[in-house]
Amino acid sequence: MAKPIIFKPILNVKEKRYQCKCGYNVTFGQECCSICETEFNWCNLEDSDPNGVDQHETGAKLDAGKVRMGLVLGDFANALEMVSLVGTVGANKYTDHGWLDVPDGISRYTDAMLRHNFKEHAGELLDPELTELAGKDVRHAACVAWNALARLELALREK
Known about the structure:
By secondary structure, the protein is mainly alpha-helical. The chain has two domains: 1-66, no CATH class; 72-156. Helix content is 39%, strand content 6%. It is built from five helices and three strands, in the order βββααααα. The protein has helices at residues 70-73, 77-93, 105-121, 128-134, 140-156; strands at 8-10, 17-19, 25-27. It has a three-stranded antiparallel sheet with strand order 1-2-3, with no helix packed on it. β1 and β2 (17-19) form a beta hairpin. The longest helix is centred in the middle third of the chain and has 17 residues, at 77-93. The radius of gyration is 22 Å and the shape is elongated. It starts with 7 loop residues before the first strand and ends with a helix.
């Protein structure tokens, strides 16, 4: 049986794809890499160590194939801080978590997202109301991102 190898998840809308240790893109379920002929063990991908370390050996971490949250939370720290500021200003203006109960929320947050997007494309980079409420510059792009996240969260919660 082939040992699990190092896989790097690749975002692909149509199918789950990974990158072999040689750098070649492989599709989930593929038996071996077309380039380096490494055999794949897809059965327990999420229950394996990305470096092939046996789960009972010291240093093993069974996280191969799992979502790498740090890629977003770490790499977008500045953007997410500004999106968090938008959420904080909104909570102070309205109420904590009140956005979850807005009737027809997906449609309304879509409209808000588009309004902020159009303002930015018209040349207005900063949201004047939120900038005043926050006491620092708040970009329309952060409002677009917040509203996009609100829409997505409501859709995932099926509201």
